[in-house]
Design a protein that fits this description.
The chain has 86 residues and is an alpha+beta fold. It has one domain. 41% of the residues lie in helices and 16% in strands. A three-stranded mixed sheet has the order 1-3-2, covered by helices on one side. Helix 1 (42-61) crosses helix 2. The longest helix has 20 residues, at 42-61.
Length: 86
């Protein structure tokens, strides 16, 4: 069903973050609403966590679940997260 803007929801189930720079022997895994993060150095994993939490905050502000977000909304969310997290 199209949203108010006429765009069809994307049906996104969640975010998957993979950190490939973990060389210290630790396996880092974080799960939360709409995301699963795996691997990475301490700094990389923390950055992925910050990004995922900000992403979820932006989705919540839309007042709808992630699977009902359309392409235009996703683009706006990504741009905002990029501005806020870097």
């Amino acid at each position: 069903m199209p949203s108010e803007s006429g765009e069809k929801p994307l049906g996104i189930k969640g975010l998957l973050g993979l950190g490939l720079d973990g060389r210290d022997g630790h396996t880092r895994i974080s799960r939360g609403p709409n995301f699963l993060l795996y691997g990475g150095s301490k700094d990389t994993h923390e950055k992925m966590q910050e990004t995922a939490l900000k992403f979820n905050e932006c989705v919540r502000e839309r007042g709808k679940p992630l699977h009902k977000i359309n392409g235009k909304e996703l683009q706006e969310i990504v741009e905002r997260v990029r501005e806020d997290v870097g």
